[in-house]
Structure formats: C-alpha cells, structure tokens
Amino acid sequence: MARKKSCKPKGETRTSFMFPSLHQNISQAVSNHIASATFHQNDSDRNTTNEYSTHVMGKFKCNNSSCSKKGWGSKKVAILIRGYSKNGYNAVVFNQSCKSCNQLGTLTLDEKSYIDRVTYRLKKWAGISAEQPNYAPKDGPPHESSLCEGCKRGLCSQNSD
Predict the structure, then answer these.
(1) Residue 1 maps to a domain
(2) Which of 31, 89, 118, 156 is buried deepest, with most CB atoms within 10 A?
(3) Residue 29: per-residue pLDDT
(4) What range(s) does the 3CxxC-type domain occupy (predicted)?
C-alpha cells in the first residue's frame, strides 16, 4: 500500500513565540520585589494593564534546504511585553524571515536578554527602581522591517528604521 504524502509544512510557520518555560527565571528575578508574578498563557491584549515593545537577541535558522543562507543572528528581535492584573504578564517574541528566501526562521532565543528585559519591565510597572538593561546599539546589519514579524504588526520598537 502506498504511503500518503505528509501535509506537514517543511519550515517554520509560527510568526511569534512565547516562552512559559522561562517564567521560573523571571519569577525568581523579581521575587524580592513582586509577590507571585504569574505567566498569562493567552497571546491576547484583552484585559491588559500595560504594554511595552522592546527587543531581545537571538539566532535564527533557515530550514529551506534550497536556500544558501543557513542562519543569522539578530540583536533586534522584537518582543511585546504585556502586563495583566495581579502581577500577570506575558511576552511575545516575533519571528524573522530569511533575507535570501523570505521563509520564516526558527528562533533560538538569547535567554539572558529575554529575562533581563522582562524582569526590568515588570519591576518598572510595579514602581520598583531597577537598573535599565543595556540598550546600546551593537555592530551589525541594520534592522530590516520587511523581514520582521513585529514590524509587520506595528509592534516592533524598531519599526521606524
């Protein structure tokens, strides 16, 4: 009997990601100042009390086997941090497309930059003094809005570039 061809997409199809697995790190980082921060699982702006766009760092892999570019790094990966009542939060990290073939990449998040950015924002919203993470520009290619899913949604802090 002949096997059916898989209808499963061969590349990345997600335009954004959430990382609930990093909640424990966030919770520990704010625990001296904020009691029981909770991760809001739904990617929704419904009932938000705060919202902030910034960026984190990451690496992307191109899964298109016919593409000459295997991957790229980015110091400007768009992230939207949302606050909810009772110390709830979530953070949506937006994907990027490959410059060579325009397919969505697979993200490997720089966890330290994510934890630093989210922790800082939660403390700021709670009125707690905190040292701002370093946002100094780094050497590298310019941000390309046409390849950034955050820019496409109008949610990237770099969308004026």
Answers:
(1) no
(2) 118
(3) 94
(4) 55-154
